[in-house]
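User: Quick sanity check before I run a bigger batch. Here is a single chain. Can you write out its predicted 3D structure?
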Amino acid sequence: MNARRSPSHHYLPRYRTVIRNELQRKLEMVVRFDSWLVHQHYALNTRKTYCKVIREACDFFATKPFRAVAPLDISEFLRHASTSCWTADRFRAHLTALRCFFEFLYLGGVVDSIAPRFVRGPVKIHKLPQVLTQLQMQRLIEAATTPRDRALLELLYATGCRSGEIPPLKVQDVDFRNRRIKVCSKGKERVVYFGKQAANALKFYLGNRTNGPLFLDDFPVQRGQLVRSGRIWQARWRQYPGRIHHTKYLGNPAKMSYRTATVKFQRLMGTVNLCRERHGITACVIQSVVQRAGEKIGMPKSCPRMIRHSFATHLLENDADLRVIQVLMGHSFVDTTQIYASLINFDLVSAFRNCHPRAL
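Assistant: Done. Predicted structure follows.
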């Protein structure tokens, strides 16, 4: 006997259509949100992270409209999205993305309240930044193996730039006469300065280059490839720009030896353009350069942020004004810069030893 169909079976296609339409409307709102972030001068990585979180939230809320999303729904989504590898920083990042998105909806009149604002995130623990000593910083720079890596490390330490501020730089942006560069990050511009050692390293690396990205990738030169495919010798190479793959017939292995095919292949490679297009480096490349140099001196956990912290700390050690360091670092508030004062404890220790009755 055939089982009777449930009455809700006839409404299942309609229900799926409702879900699909509601999700489509939400994804269209995410596109508008991304455009709004562009006009608000948010960084590219921030926009990608925020939009990724919002798309996950749209899938989780399904047919529930944004106006009906309550703080409990936000908490349930964060609990659902959390995994065993989640940290407090990642939880706060997701919550910040949701707050920004619902603020956008509130400004547009889509929602009546900002639900994520009623969700409390974990308490942030302010940790002291890790810094290198001046001797360690010198060893790190000397561990660079190529002129590009040496110039990059010199510039990072001389300017205190963030790793994301280096890739957009052009050769024409560098003022060698006044030894300064205008950098842009987080929607703000500032001027950073560098010394003679960084200037010499940059000039040695750049050579005769006067335009283009300041730091280029170091992909190996293309050489082509000699391949025996079945009963034929083939020469293979790629043409740039466009990465167009080319194949050229060289001969039959039964009638042509490997040595003859190699000579013919080398003669052919001398007539084609094997130059590979070069691009500017990325933040990931900067990370790997610093890490490789750190491994050579026994500090495998070195990172560009550590160099930035060392830049500020060494300035403070040499009696630089905190306000000056704030401007050079590009901090919006001096409270962010004051954390480096906690690392300069020489005067504090001497004052404690000399003034406290039970210090000795």
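Strands lie at 174-175, 180-185, 188-193, 225-229, 232-239, 244-251.

User: Great, the batch can go ahead then.
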